[in-house]
Specification:
9 helices, 7 strands, alpha/beta, single chain, about 250 residues, seven-stranded parallel sheet
């Protein structure tokens, strides 16, 4: 632990497993106290993070697509710690999505992807943003995707939602900047996280993705952590509205 986030309070949505778990652990290792929100049970994850890092971490159920759930979650964090310094909008649908032609995407699936991947970050910011404005300090980090720049056939609902995050990030950066709040996004390439390894269909194009990279190797969760901590810390105090592509040089912005 280097302590770059010592004393900070962080929220990680979708933090119970896979990439979210790695993100929450990295923030805690830097000294932040971390609130994990997820529809999956994250009590064991939160306990393990506390044990490994020495930073306090707790879990509460959260459905980012439902405003009453978001409101209750944010209120619980404020009651416990009294402030929120870092919001990581990580919760998203990807690995569980089947690949299919745009013609075959059910409307219900489309709506569910947009609800979690776009409405979720909006609702989180709607309720966390005023807290940060009152503090005149905040770091908001949204998870986009390299696919938003390159396109990816047979994943239209997902790629569209992640492209939306880019505009969401830029507009919020302008709106919240006067209150000393930065808003940035990470755009990972294909990362072989636990959830992706459990969905072999998404690894079928892995070789092509790796070949497209300036650094032609597989991406792992730890490859994202340096960029995350940079955007969460005061190292990025004058960086806002930006997207950091972390994909070994496939997308070059």
């Amino acid at each position: 632990m280097t302590g770059r986030l010592q004393g900070k309070i962080a929220i990680v949505t979708g933090g119970a497993k896979s990439l979210g778990m790695h993100f929450a652990t990295a923030l805690a290792r830097e000294g932040a106290r971390v609130a994990i929100g997820d529809i999956a049970d994250g009590k064991e994850t939160a306990h393990a993070i506390s044990e490994v890092t020495g930073s306090e971490c707790f879990y509460l159920p959260l459905d980012v697509a439902k405003e009453d759930s978001v409101e209750a979650f944010v209120a619980a964090v404020m009651e416990r710690w009294g402030r929120i310094d870092i919001l990581l909008n990580n919760a998203a649908l990807f690995a569980a999505l089947p690949q299919r032609s745009y013609r075959d995407i059910p409307v219900e699936e489309w709506d569910r992807v947009q609800a979690i991947n776009l409405r979720g970050p909006f609702l989180m910011v709607k309720h966390v943003g005023p807290v940060m404005e009152e503090q005149e300090y905040g770091r908001i980090i949204n998870i986009s995707s390299g696919t938003a720049y390159k396109g990816m056939p047979r994943l239209l609902s997902y790629v569209t939602s992640k492209a939306g995050i880019l505009g969401f990030t830029r507009t919020l950066a302008r709106e919240l900047g006067p209150k000393n709040i930065t808003v940035n996004s990470l755009a990972p390439g294909l990362i072989e996280s636990e959830s992706v390894r459990g969905a072999p269909e998404h690894l079928t194009f892995s070789d092509k993705v790796v070949a497209s990279r300036a650094m032609p190797r597989t991406g792992h969760p730890q490859d994202l952590l340096g960029g995350l901590i940079f955007l969460a810390s005061d190292d990025s105090a004058f960086v806002s509205g930006q997207t950091l592509a972390v994909d070994g040089g496939s997308v070059m912005l």
